[in-house]
Every structure is written in C-alpha cells, then in structure tokens.
Design a protein that fits this description.
The chain is an alpha/beta fold. It has helices at residues 10-19, 51-68, 116-124, 143-149, 160-169, 204-213, 218-242, and strands at residues 2-7, 23-27, 30-37, 40-46, 73-76, 79-82, 92-100, 111-113, 128-135, 155-157, 173-176, 178-182. A hairpin with a 2-residue loop joins strand 3 and strand 4.
Length: 261
C-alpha cells in the first residue's frame, strides 16, 4: 500500500524523521522522504504553507504518482491552531470534515468529508473527535480572530481542504490527523504571515526582522517554539503507530474516496 502524508513545513515532519529511517527524494523541487513499514510504503511530502502551495505540491505529487501507481491513502498532517477552547496544545485531532474560507470554483461545496474508516482508526488510537477543521488563507495570529471563527470549526490550518480535495480527485482515500500547536485563547508571538519565504517556509531572517521591531516578543516566541515542537513530537509518535497499521485497511474501493457533494 502506498500512503502519502503531507506536512506544511520541515519542522513538522522532523520529529518523525528521527523515529524512522527515511530516504530523501528531490522531484522537480518537491521535498519528499520515503520509508517502508512492512507492507506500507510511506511518502512524506512538505507542501509549504497555504492553499496555493498545497495545491501546487499536491498536483505535482499526484501526477508523479500516476506514472507509477496511485497513492491509496492520503493523510493531511502537521500542526493546527485551536478555535475551540476545549482543545489544548499537543492534542491530536481527527476532524470529520474540512471547511474552506473561500469556496473553490472547481468544487461544488465549501465542505469536504474525510474517509470515515480512516478517521475511526485514528480515533481508536486516541485522536480527539472533532467535527470540523477550517482551512484559512492566513495564519490566525490573534485570539480574537480565532473566536470569530469558532462557530465554524474547532481548529484551523492552511492546507487540509486543498490536500483532501486533490487526493479525492485522484482516487485516494483521505483523512486529516493534526496536532494542536496553540490554544484558542492565545495570541501568536509574531505575525507569521510576514515571515514566509518564496518556498512558503518560515524564514529565519524574516522572523528576526519581526523580532527587531518587537524585541519583547522573544520570550513568547521561544515558548511557542517549544510548544510547537512538543506538538510535532506527539504527532510523530501518533503517526508511527497509525500509518503502519493502515496495511490492514479493507480493500480500497475507489468509491470510498469521500468528498461532500
């Protein structure tokens, strides 16, 4: 079985790479790591942050796979921010659906549903049951922004809707498994929307520029970095249990690749 697991940035996948041996693959600028876990061939893909980066990386990834063999399962993974006050940093979530901030012209609905069987397997391993994940165009920096969106979903990211949409379009079964990096009540220490590189990764230089404007944010940034790292480590341990077990998933009927109509 071929399983694709996506992450927005290198820091999200780094703890998993410490747990198992991955081999690096550079395909037309895509950053891939591949590993075998019994009958499961795992490909970890770093898409970059945001809807556009995720769409580009996923389309290229699936076209590459089409020349070999389709991925049977796609997992949108990485970190997410809490919108619901009931969610705490480091908790693993498995939402039932994903809503998008701006409806796509090429998709009939603003909501997608994930594969129920794959989600239930995540819940059985301890992931927290949530109804919806909201895919936003930007990082939600302020707690007020999170409160304003709390009626739509319990958590927020910037990639999952596009990842699940493309995966389903190519015939894969898709699920979302993410770790909470920040609570609904906390402001982020800096505006991460202003720190992205051309590759849609967090630029150290741009982070330094933000800190130069507000040096008092440094302690909060250090705390947030540690919190995010612990969340990524918790996620890596979860994926290490979850992904190899997918080899026992029932026969992959293409009709099970779920999308809301």
């Amino acid at each position: 079985m071929k399983v694709l697991v996506t992450f927005a940035v290198d820091a999200e996948v780094a703890p998993w790479r410490k747990l198992r041996k991955f081999r690096f693959i550079d395909y037309e600028g895509l950053r891939l790591w591949r590993s075998d876990a019994g009958d499961v061939e795992i490909t970890a893909l770093v898409t970059g942050m945001g809807v556009e980066a995720a769409a580009y990386a996923m389309d290229l990834m699936m076209r590459m796979a089409d020349a070999e063999q389709h991925f049977e399962v796609c997992i949108s993974s990485g970190l997410a921010g809490a919108l619901a006050e009931s969610l705490n940093p480091e908790e693993i979530i498995a939402p039932q659906g994903i809503m998008v901030e701006r409806k796509h012209a090429d998709w009939p609905s603003e909501r997608l549903e994930v594969d129920a069987e794959l989600r239930n397997r995540a819940l059985d391993l301890g992931a927290k049951c949530t109804d919806c994940l909201f895919t936003s165009d930007q990082v939600m920096v302020k707690a007020k922004q999170k409160r304003d969106c709390a009626s739509k979903a319990q958590a927020v990211d910037m990639e999952s809707f596009e990842i699940v949409k493309v995966a389903c379009a190519w015939g894969a079964r898709a699920v979302v498994v993410r770790a909470i990096s920040d609570s609904a009540k906390e402001d982020l220490p800096i505006n991460f929307n202003l720190t992205l590189s051309g590759e849609k990764q967090v630029s150290v230089g741009k982070v330094a520029a933000q800190l130069a404007k507000n040096p008092l944010a440094l302690p909060s940034l250090i705390r947030f970095a540690r919190q995010s790292r612990r969340a990524a480590e918790t996620l890596a341990n979860f994926l290490e249990k979850y992904v190899p077990g997918l080899a026992s998933v029932d026969s992959l009927d293409r009709s099970k690749a779920v999308a809301a109509q």
